[in-house]
Amino acid sequence: MKTWLNTYFRIEESGSTIKREFAGGLTAFLSMSYVIFVNPIILGNAGMPEDAVFMATILSSAIAMLIMGLYARFPLGLAPCMSMNAFFAFSVVLGMGMAWEVALAAVLVSSVLFIMLSFSGIRAKIIKGIPLPIKQAGNVGLGLFIAFVSFKNAGIIVPDSSMFITFGGFHNPNVVIAIVGVLTAAFFLVKKNQYAVFFGMIGAAVCGLLIRLGVDMGWLSMAPEIAATLPQLPAGSPIVVPVGPMQSMIDNTLFVGFKNLGELLNPQAIIVVLTFLFLDFFGTATTLSAAASQIPDLPAEAFENNHRIYVADAVGTFVGGVLGTSNLSTYIESVSGIINGARTGLMAVVTACLFLLSVFIYPLLSLVTAAVTTPAMVVIGIFMMQNIVNIDWRGGYEVIVPSFITIVMMPLTGSIALGLTMGFVSYELCMIFAGKHKELGWIMHGITLVSIAYMITL
Q: What distance in Å separates the CA atoms of residue 458 and residue 29, rounded to the nearest whole number?
């Protein structure tokens, strides 16, 4: 088996080991596992049965990652995208009044278009057509974005009426848990330990359990709603057969999208389909680029020409639409596995298997809270931020201005896609202002037009 794994995944050739691949898969799973619980809650706001979405989330993620690992042989994880599920629930269903069944049909159609783009090679050409400064700035902006979101979810930053945001304060135990985890990860990073992300999450989880023990023993006092957010061991058996969620998915969400395809023949639905496609396309492009940048000695061409990566991503969304969840996307959180030393598709396969196992041991995932995942997100942000040195800040302002806009607008608007589109448009305009419009190819012109059309719909 060891020989077969080495041969199929080219593990030794990639400078990795089977042990590193398994450790990377475990780390990626722990970093991504929150989606199993968060996605059903978000889509539940749209009226979808949460237990059905729970099962659809696990199965579609696992299938997509098996394709990524066995077909594309790339170390990335996929799951329902957090920004896409929010767009699905709050903008499409609650905002536009579209039934969630019809919205699932829109997800299916957008995934089919995505698959067509991937197999045709057009998507790879579009990725190549994106200017290098915007790609690099997108990586930096994405790092800031995920660090910002993790700080927010852990309570480290909170809304403020005068300064917009402010420090949440140590009275929130999740702030303490997150900071302990980050400091633990920082210790192992400084020691150049490749498992720094994993140890950071372990440190955060242990801190959370100790605080919960203090509450249970009466040594610490806090509001019940705050105590409920702490990591906890399962109350009952850690192994559960999920008969109910499986039956709910079969009865309520499976193939529902296909049954509502006829409801998409109107202008509003077409806009929704194209918006799903747009968000998935450019959001995933940035995430893939950021992930690839963390693998030493990986040529850009190896990433850009590997259409199998794009196919795995697109097919994952199709499977999600069939089972009953919003668009899947490559998860930036899975970069934690790469940072942990993984280099091959075996990591994705391991993560997929752990997702499938979580169907039975999901009570144990009560340990993985937003605060526990913060160390992984912060470390990823640190690694993404390092791409800022690759941007030519001493060059012309036709590079500086769009790079700056791309970086700051991702975290400030809370949208990866919007940050990218503003970067695309500003790059095109600044190149025209600089008299360098002839250097812009037809692909860049097309991206700019699509970006403008997208922003008009917001």
A: 33
Name the percent of the chain lying above pLDDT 70: 95
Between CA 60 and CA 184 the distance in angstroms is 33
In whole angstroms, give the CA distance from residue 375 to residue 326: 27
- Looking at residue 95, its pLDDT comes to 81
Measured from the Cβ of residue 161, the count of other Cβ atoms closer than 10 Å reads: 6
| Per-residue CA distances from 241 to 32, 104, 451 (Å) | 22, 27, 46
Return the C-alpha torsion angle 84, 85, 86, 92, nearest 10. 90
Contact 337, 73 (CB under 8 A): no
Rounded Cα–Cα distance for residues 396 and 391 (Å): 11
Cβ-proximal residues to 60 (8 Å cutoff; 6+ apart), any chain: 79, 80, 316, 319, 320, 322, 323, 325, 328
Within 217-266, where are the H helices? 224-227, 243-252, 256-259
What is residue 328's DSSP assignment? E
Which burial class, exposed, middle or buried, applies to 113 when counting CB atoms under 10 A from its CB (0-12, 13-18, 19+)? middle
Q: Which residue has the tokens 């940072």?
A: 339
Distance, in Å, from the CA atom of 104 to the CA atom of 256, rounded to the nearest integer, reads 7
Separation between Cα atoms, residue 350 and residue 26, nearest integer Å: 7
Lowest mean pLDDT among 17-21, 64-68, 85-89, 179-183: 85-89
Give the pLDDT confidence of 196-243 residue by residue, as tens digits.
888 898 899 999 999 999 998 889 988 888 888 898 887 777 788 888
Cβ atoms of residues 109 and 269 within 8 Å: no
What whole-number distance in Å separates Cα of residue 407 and Cα of residue 410? Answer: 6
**H-only helix segments in 306-396:** 307-323, 335-339, 345-361, 370-385
Cα–Cα distances in angstroms (integers) from residue 342 to residues 55, 311, 431, in the given order: 27, 21, 39
Buried b (16+ CB within 10 A) or exposed e, 228-262: ebbbbeeeeeeeeebeebbebbeebbbebbeebee
Neighbours of 433 (CB within 10 A): 12
Sign of CA dihedral 212, 217, 220, 223: positive
d(CA 405, CA 80): 27
Which 3-state string (H, E, C) describes 71-86?
A: HHCCCCCEEECHHHHH
Distance CA 266, CA 271 (A): 9
Coil, strand or helix: which one is 441?
Answer: coil
Q: How distant is the alpha carbon of residue 414 from its chain centre? A: 13
Return the bridge partners of 330, or none.
Answer: 78
